[in-house]
TrEMBL record:
Residues 18-267 form the NADP-dependent oxidoreductase domain. PANTHER family: 2,5-DIKETO-D-GLUCONIC ACID REDUCTASE, NADP-DEPENDENT OXIDOREDUCTASE DOMAIN-CONTAINING PROTEIN. This is Diketogulonate reductase-like aldo/keto reductase. InterPro entries: AKR (IPR020471), Aldo/ket_reductase_CS (IPR018170), NAD(P)_OxRdtase_dom_sf (IPR036812), NADP_OxRdtase_dom (IPR023210). The lineage of its organism: Bacteria, Bacillati, Bacillota, Bacilli, Bacillales. SUPFAM superfamilies: NAD(P)-linked oxidoreductase. The keyword Protein transport does not apply. Substrate binds at residue 109.
Length: 272
């Protein structure tokens, strides 16, 4: 879909460089959305147990008919689930929902429950990670990682566990480049995945983005997604609209270093 086909994790596993995100897509809409994405060349699908759409995500992948190894599937351990046995149970639920024998990537969805953001769950995360290491070593997951983890959260795993996370999926977009965290992950050879690359649409009317998109002859959304790639992060755009699903993958251009710097300088324009 773009010049670069994949990112490569530190264990050698390759992941397609654009993922189709399914956050906030209800289960009843997920089948059609994922099918449309697959029809238009996406081979990397990102879901989570918490999204409550794994069943139809898996059914769409199965019904589309590509060989299992041709579709990269990511899911996530719910943020509130911490602990060794609890993680194994949640993984089994995800595998059952999706109707697959293995996952390509499994992530701890967040270092703390969404209802208790900032809570210290270090010991629970360590136990969950050890369970994921077992699943990885047993061949049930090709790569393991985290999501929404800070440098401190990741360091706690590095200090106590055997496997360095292969990915950290974080909110990353123009105006929120998380420079320190991105640098830390690069030092540890952790691939950064950029979710909400369009900031849920809140940055698309930025005058700088609009003007630059016109300069490159692309849409503001395409510029925002390309920015993530040019910052060496893996974008996960989401849409249920076929034309936008297609548009979001048509990124055969690069942004000049000077223009990337100009985009870096934009401040977070979200309301919150």
């Amino acid at each position: 879909m773009t010049k670069e086909a994949t990112f490569t994790f530190h264990n050698g596993v390759e992941i397609p460089n654009i993922g189709f995100g399914t956050w906030q897509i209800p289960n009843e809409e997920a089948y059609a959305a994922v099918t449309t994405a697959l029809e238009n060349g996406y081979t990397h699908i990102d879901t989570a147990l918490a999204y409550q759409n794994e069943e139809n995500v898996g059914k769409a992948v199965h019904d589309f008919g590509l060989a299992r190894e041709k579709v990269f599937i990511t899911s996530k351990l719910p943020a509130q689930i911490k602990g060794y046995d609890e993680t194994l149970q949640a993984f089994d639920e995800t595998i059952s929902n999706l109707g697959v024998d293995y996952l390509d990537l499994y992530l701890i969805h967040a270092p703390w429950p969404w209802t208790e953001i900032g809570k210290d769950c270090t010991e629970g995360n360590i136990q969950s990670w050890k369970a994921m290491e077992k699943l990885y070593n047993d061949g049930k997951i090709r790569a393991i990682g985290v999501s929404n983890f800070s440098e401190t959260d990741i360091q706690a795993l590095l200090d106590t566990c055997d496997i360095v996370p292969m990915a950290n999926q974080i909110p990353f977009y123009i105006g929120r480049d998380q420079e320190s965290l991105l640098s830390f992950c690069k030092q540890q050879n952790i691939v950064v995945e950029a979710y909400s690359p369009l900031a849920t649409g809140q940055i698309l009317n930025s005058p700088v983005i609009l003007e630059m998109a016109e300069k490159y002859g692309v849409t503001p959304a395409q510029l925002c997604i390309r920015y993530c790639l040019d910052r060496e992060t893996l974008p996960l755009p989401k849409s249920t609209n076929e034309s936008r699903i297609i548009e979001n993958s048509q990124l055969n251009f690069t942004i000049s270093p000077e223009d990337v710097k100009a985009l870096d300088a934009i401040e977070d324009v979200r309301d919150n």
